[in-house]
Design a protein that fits this description.
Elements (H helix, E strand, L loop, with lengths): L1 H18 L3 E5 L6 E7 L3 H14 L3 E7 L2 H10 L6 E4 L2 H9 L16 E2 L3 E3 L3 E8 L12 H10 L1 H4 L3 E4 L5 H13 L3 H10 L3 E3 L2 H10 L4 E6 H6 L7 E4 L7 E2 L2 E4 L6 H13 L20 H6 L13 H15 L2
Parallel strand pairs: 2-3, 2-4, 8-9, 8-10
Antiparallel strand pairs: 1-3, 4-13, 5-6, 6-13, 7-10, 7-11, 7-12
Length: 335
């Protein structure tokens, strides 16, 4: 009986441990002797080609890849900073906060653009726009919004078509959603009006881009606001069902960023991986297949739309400011 009880306890622990993560996977090097632990908000299917290419060049390493939401990445890492070696997230503001609070190692002599790094500790390695994504079939007879103002006008003119058919991030749960929302509010006078109209039409709220994209393809919703364009364009299997649009005014382009944990067990190996990421070798033609656009794609126009890695990003992380922003957002969107 005692052994049966121990077995049940072990099974329960293994199940709860598995449920702690959205995804986790061990990538094995061909002659690995050490394991690098990556904590990330990037879906495994999207990031796997990058890891696999790195391991071809560095076969003595395994990589244990843990995936959860951007907000949870921040919380988990702050709670257990010695459990991970590299932290990757789409929530630039939360990553900046981790560096500011002393959770990251500096990397010296890394040739990287000044606009894509902060304090030699946080490094951007992708460029990914916030997008409007629509269901092609539903918009066959509707105009497609090319800006926030056009989206407002389309929703106002056709409320019956959009009732319960709009999706966006739940900014209370999504770190990336909160980042995009606060940047929109700072840059665009039309943001709050758009939120009010979306709220009046029973907008559906999501934690993740992937879930929104699936519902767009099925027709459960027909338009989604502030979706990661890279994730939508990654779904080649849905190309005939969804279309990605980029707002022409005040575009927001996010940099996915990486840092090395200050308490990493493997500082040299973690730095090796970071240098690989920032080199953009993983994005060279014919090298890998990932939808993540590297910094190589940074044209002058794109540069102007990039959310800056600067202390100002942390303004809305202040507890009072966050509470006030969430309260105003809830008043507009949850009616």
């Amino acid at each position: 009986m005692r052994y049966f009880y121990i077995l049940i306890c072990c099974l329960w622990l293994s199940v709860t441990s598995a449920e702690e993560w959205e995804e986790q996977k061990l990538f094995k090097g061909s002659s690995a002797t050490q394991t690098l632990r990556l904590l990330s908000s990037t879906d495994t299917s999207v990031f796997a080609p990058v890891i696999e290419k790195f391991l071809l060049e560095n076969p003595t390493l395994n990589i244990h890849y843990f995936v959860t939401s951007s907000a949870t990445v921040y919380q988990r890492f702050r709670t257990s900073p010695d459990q991970f070696d590299v932290v990757i997230s789409s929530a630039m503001d939360l990553q900046l906060k981790l560096v500011n609070d002393g959770f990251a190692n500096q990397v010296e002599d890394l040739l990287h653009p000044d606009w894509a790094q902060w304090r030699q500790s946080l490094f951007g390695f992708t460029l990914e726009p916030a997008s409007i994504v629509v269901n092609k079939a539903a918009f066959a007879t509707l105009p497609k919004p090319q800006s926030r103002q056009q989206m407002i006008e389309i929703l106002r003119t056709n409320p019956a078509d959009f009732q319960g058919k709009i999706g966006t991030y739940d900014v209370r749960q999504s770190g990336l959603g909160y980042l995009f929302a606060t940047q929109d509010a700072r840059a665009s006078e039309s943001y709050w009006r758009l939120m009010e109209i979306m709220g009046s039409l029973d907008t559906r709220l999501y934690c993740c881009s992937g879930d929104m994209i699936e519902d767009l393809a099925s027709g459960s919703i027909i338009i989604a606001y502030n979706v990661l364009g890279s994730y939508a364009m990654a779904r080649a299997d849905l190309a005939d069902k969804i279309e990605v649009l980029h707002p022409s005014e005040f575009p927001n382009t996010m940099m996915r960023t990486a840092l090395i944990a200050q308490e990493t067990r493997l500082p040299q190996q973690a730095e090796l991986f970071l240098r690989y990421l920032t080199s953009s070798r993983w994005s060279e033609p014919g090298q890998t297949e990932t939808p993540l656009p590297s910094l190589r794609t940074a044209s002058e126009n794109t540069r102007r739309s990039i959310i800056s890695l600067e202390p100002g990003l942390m303004i809305f992380l202040d507890r009072l400011k966050r509470r006030l922003f969430i309260r105003e957002w809830e008043s507009a969107v949850i009616q």
